[in-house]
UniProtKB/TrEMBL annotation:
Residues 44-192 form the HhH-GPD domain. The gene is nth. This is Endonuclease III. The keyword Protein biosynthesis does not apply. Keywords: 4Fe-4S, DNA damage, DNA repair, DNA-binding, Endonuclease, Glycosidase, Hydrolase, Iron, Iron-sulfur, Lyase, Metal-binding, Nuclease.
Length: 227
């Protein structure tokens, strides 16, 4: 078990500093070339790896290009085009309905406010934050995905459990200039080292400040259970 910095603010800044050194090129890993593609890629990425989404969207984005293309596509045809993605039937439905709304109520443009985005089917606060940050350069929140949720708890940065509550907590702690990068750094570390089932604490650059670092009888603060 490592010893965290005295305050959560100090712990957060230390984590950012070390992960920035470790992952200097950290950024979004979904591939897209416009806002609509970004929105669709993020909807597809729920409970699915970015790698799988990128493999699938490579041909999807060639076949469908405008919101009208998706809105007018038969449900079965679109679902078939997505069939290697988890929950592809539901996601095909969300994408068709979201694109219908984009055509009917937003002149074919992906909206640029949290309220309008979260009115689209299949779009929660996490998806909306990604689209605002990377599609519109609007940063009004912190994206809390499964990696951010797990690592912030393991590292003693938050004790909240739900993503929405974690986000609110983080907004008070993470320096505003890092609201976007914080997510990417934790995702990179969650993929490379601090994985869900078997984190590699021995080679972790945060081990000495991580209260979940594996040792005799220590606890994984993400789950609250002993390792
Ligand atoms: S890999 Fe281990 S030491 Fe590193 S952040 Fe995760 S739980 Fe902590």
């Amino acid at each position: 078990m490592g010893t965290p910095r005295e305050t959560r603010d100090d712990q957060t800044v230390e984590v950012i500093d070390r992960l920035e050194a470790e992952y200097p090129d950290s950024t979004i890993s979904l591939r897209y070339s416009n806002r609509l593609e970004l929105l669709i890629a993020v909807i597809l990425s729920a409970q699915c790896t970015d790698e799988r989404v990128n493999a699938e969207t490579e041909h999807l984005f060639e076949t469908y290009q405008s919101p009208e293309d998706y809105a007018n596509a038969p449900q079965e045809e679109l679902a078939e085009a997505l069939n290697s993605i988890n929950f592809y039937n539901n996601k095909a439905g969300y994408i068709r309905e979201a694109c219908e709304l984009i055509v009917e109520e937003h002149d074919g443009e992906v909206p640029d406010t949290m309220d309008e985005l979260t009115e689209l089917p299949g779009v929660g606060r996490k998806t909306a934050n990604v689209v605002l940050q990377h599609g519109h350069d609007v940063v009004e929140g912190i994206v809390v995905d499964t990696h951010v949720q797990r690592l912030t708890r393991r590292l003693g940065i938050t004790e909240e459990e739900r993503p929405e509550a974690i986000e609110q907590d983080l907004l008070d702690i993470v320096p505003e200039g890092y609201w976007v990068q914080f997510t990417h750094l934790l995702i990179d570390h969650g993929r490379a080292t601090c994985t869900a089932r078997n984190p590699d604490c021995e080679s972790c650059v945060l081990a000495d400040i991580c209260p979940s670092e594996k040792g005799d009888g220590d606890i994984d603060l993400a789950s609250g259970d002993p390792w």
